[in-house]
């Protein structure tokens, strides 16, 4: 008769082995990479929302300002406030100094039925000025305070939940098969 009491506890501990220490063990690695790249962007006077959440790693030459950001895969999302579709290549590169990103490669925006490469970004007070060759467009920096999530990408928490629900299903199926024997 002790089996009905022990079985739910056993299932609980199998399903949630990390619940007391860290409910999302992979988030620390991902968050440290993301926050480091986004913090670096902030140090140069730019809002964190210029980079999506899926930053894998980045490098920057502190002397020359040349940088490279690895996203792991291409990324697309809608930019505020005019709902332009933006695509980020798996690798973004350029040269950054305080308040200005130049020689930017890897970011394109769809506007007026055409794709345009953003070649530079300037921080000008409360605004960001996006450069497309010699043409510029100014937008409020406050529209870029939140980091965008790539369309079609799930959050780390979503993967964690999916993983645990899959484990729950496997355990329930196993228990059901044992009870039928």
Automatic annotation (TrEMBL):
Q: List the coiled-coil residues.
A: none
Q: Name one Pfam family in it.
A: DUF538
Q: Which UniProt keywords apply?
A: Signal
Signal peptide stretch: 1-21
Gene3D superfamilies associated with the record:
At5g01610-like
PANTHER family membership: OS01G0595400 PROTEIN, T31J12.3 PROTEIN-RELATED
* Protein name, as recorded: Uncharacterized protein
Q: Which organism is it from?
A: Vitis rotundifolia
